[in-house]
Specification:
CATH topology of the domain at 2-61: YefM-like fold
Distance between the termini: 62 Å
CATH class of the domain at 2-61: Alpha Beta
Structural class: alpha+beta
Largest sheet: 3 strands, mixed
Number of helices: 4
Order of helices and strands: EHHEEHH
Shape: elongated
Number of strands: 3
Helix content: 40-55%
């Protein structure tokens, strides 16, 4: 995401702007008299993804095809049965 701020707006909300840059990965263009004079950007990308990005990715997944449940059952049936080790006496 990219935001444009005047030098005055940056001065008034510096702490908030720096937090948005660090935590949200926002890029902030700083303008003076309508001209971009600087860019604030995070040194490293924020860790992980946002909930919105997760929802977008999940929404674009296709549903499993025909026979998916049967395939899972066959995989489970082919696995050895789990045994519980005896408790030491």
């Amino acid at each position: 995401m990219e935001t444009r701020l005047t030098v005055q707006a940056l001065a008034e909300g510096l702490v908030d702007v720096l937090e948005r840059v660090r935590c949200r990965g926002e890029r902030v263009l700083i303008e003076r008299d309508g001209e971009t004079v600087a860019v604030l950007a995070a040194v490293a990308p924020p860790p992980g993804i946002t909930l919105r990005e997760l929802a977008t990715r999940l929404g674009s997944l296709e549903l499993p095809g025909e026979g998916f449940a049967e395939d899972l059952e066959a995989i489970q049936a082919s696995q050895p049965k789990a045994t519980t080790p005896p408790w030491p006496s």
